[in-house]
Each structure stands twice: as C-alpha cells, then as structure tokens.
Amino acid sequence: MAGNINLHAANKAKKDEFYTQLVDIENELKHYKAHFKGKTVLCNCDDPRISNFFHYFSYNFEQLGLKKLITTCYKNQNRDLFSQNDSERAIWLEYFGDKNNNRVPDPEEIGIHYLNGDGDFRSQECIELLKEADIVVTNPPFSLFRDYVAQLIENEKKFLIIGNQNAITNKDFFPLIKNNKVWFGASIHSGDREFGVPNDYPLNAAGYRQDEKGNKFIRVKGVRWFTNLDYEKRHEDLILYKAYNPDEYPKYDNYDAINVDKTSEIPMDYDGFMGVPITFMDKYNPEQFEILGICAGNSRLNQFYGIVPYTPHVEDRVVVLF
Ligand SMILES: C[S@@+](CC[C@H](N)C(=O)[O-])C[C@H]1O[C@@H](n2cnc3c(N)ncnc32)[C@H](O)[C@@H]1O
C-alpha cells in the first residue's frame, strides 16, 4: 500500500517537473512589454537555478523597466520524488535590478531568503509574496492548475501562465474564458512544445529526447499560455471567406445552431448560433464573436463551443449555455 502511494506521488511529481525553455518565454513575453513597466513580477513555482522565467526577468529587468522580481522555489519534502531540489530548504529571492552596470544579475545583487515551509504557492508566506506582486508569470504544476488559477483570481492578480488547452473545458475555468476574464496567450496556437525534464525522467517516455550535452526534453501536446494581460493580436478579426448554405452546415438535432467543423470555415454571413471546435479559441476575437457556452460529455458535440457573430446592437441577446 505504502509503495503504491509513493509511486502515485512520484508519478504526480514527475508530471509536474517540466522546465520551460527560454525561447518559448521570449516568444510570448515580447507581446506584453508595455504591461511590465514599474511592476513587481512574481515567479512562484520556480527554482532560480533551473527556471528560465527567473533568467528571463532578471536579464531583461532594465529593458522591461521592472520594479522588483520575486521568485519562490518549491522544495519537495519527500526525497523519493522526482523534483531535482529535495535536499535543501525552500527559498525565495528578490532582485531589484543591476547595481554595478554590468547588465548581469550578479549573486551579490540577488537577495536570498529562507521560507519556513516548503514553498507551496498555497502557503500563507507565499500568499504574502503573491499579494506584493503585480503580475505572476510561470509554468505552474500541471496537477495543481485549477487551485493555482483559483488563487490568482481570488487575489485579483494579472498573470501569464502555461497550461494545457483542455483546462478550458473545466467547469470552474470555462466561465473565466466565456466572460473574457482569461484568454489564450499570443504565441502558441498549435503543435507540441518541448520542455526540459529531470535527469531521472523515464527513458521510455513518448516524445523523449536527449541532446548532445545530455540535457533531457519531452514533447508535450496541447500547451497554451493563459493570461488576463491584453495584447494587440487578440483583437484582430478572423478573416472569413465561406458563404453559409444549409447543406454544408447542418443544424444539430437537439439545438438551434449550425455545426462548423473547421474554425476557418465559419460562414461569414450567418448570424445565428454556431457550434465550433476547440481550435476556435486560438482565433477568438471578443469584438468579432461571443462565446455562449461549452458542450462537453456528448460524443457527437464533444468540446464544441457555441458562438455567434458579435452584434453590439442586439441588447437582449439570450445567452444559452451549450
Ligand atoms: C511545470 S514545472 C515548471 C517549473 C518552472 N516554472 C519552469 O517553467 O521551468 C512546475 C514546478 O512547480 C513545482 N511545484 C510543484 N508543486 C508545487 C507547489 N505546491 N507550490 C509551488 N511549486 C510547486 C514543481 O516542483 C515544478 O518545478
């Protein structure tokens, strides 16, 4: 029994140990530069020795005009688990920028403080640091994504975080998407992303790769950035080219909406309800469409969204949950 619990915990921890690559952080962050001026940034699932989030913000501190960078580092208390950092105490760091003008965050410029607990983002001491922050940026543990987002929302924080696109089908998360409180980030809209993994990651895992220096990576599907920071591209209209015809866009038996199989084939001249695939979210412009709801659990309609063209003059629109 104990062995099983440990195995389960190890599996869970292993699933959480994915290290984001610098290039993916740079590609996303370049869309938000204006948001960061004068702000305190928190990376709260980030061991500074491996986290490229800490690297990015410390090296770009002056360019972004940051006020302060805070990083907290989680220490697994269980040595059997896969986290690379199980032997030392949890710490948090603060960085106020380059003091000696060498444009590098030197060790003596970084304040190191010990945490009383293990650095769990839900602990009171970590919540105090969260309260100090203006914007939270990280790739949080996959297994705790829901709790993580709930805490950000509860504390009314701006954020830019990595997660799986399927998170939006969750009943607590979907209302945030529907009500335009959270949206997909700018840079990742398809394909897999490669993440660094610890040395003891199972060699037979699908999508596993080792580079010439021995660094290990795994390809992960369905990765997206989630944010409540605005960026220009999300207000660009999706260019539509197809005309509606009832044969190509049949109505559902149980709902007064047409079925659209591909986002690119949304008819330009249909202004009723439409069911669209989850990939629609990558093209969603809140000035062009309105999301009505999500339909999950029905194999025919699984992961379809109801959308209608956005028509601000319709004051009394009935919003129906799909
Ligand atoms: C997906 S990894 C990403 C690490 C880093 N943010 C990055 O992107 O390279 C999530 C990290 O959160 C840490 N973690 C797990 N549970 C945590 C918790 N309760 N509080 C804070 N961090 C946690 C894990 O050890 C892991 O390093």
The count of helical stretches stands at 7
Low-confidence stretches: 1-10, 78-83, 297-304, 311-322
Q: Major beta sheet, specifics? A: 8 strands, mixed
- Structural class per helix/strand content? alpha/beta
Number of strands: 15
Bound molecules: S-adenosylmethionine
Shape: elongated
Instruction: Give the SSE string.
Output: HHEHHEEEHEHEHEEEEEEEEE
Strand order of the largest sheet: 4-3-2-1-5-6-11-7
Rounded mean pLDDT is 84
Radius of gyration, in Å, reads: 22 Å
How far from one another are the termini? 43 Å
Strand residue content: 15-25%
How helix-rich are the residues, as a percent range? Answer: 10-25%
What count of structural domains? Answer: 2
In short:
The protein contains seven helices and 15 strands. By secondary structure, it is of the alpha/beta class.
What does the secondary structure layout of this molecule look like, with pairings?
Layout: H1 2-16, H2 22-29, E1 40-43, H3 52-59, H4 61-64, E2 68-72, E3 91-95, E4 110-114, H5 124-132, E5 135-138, H6 145-154, E6 158-164, H7 174-178, E7 183-184, E8 193-196, E9 208-210, E10 216-220, E11 223-227, E12 258-259, E13 274-276, E14 289-295, E15 304-309
The protein binds S-adenosylmethionine.
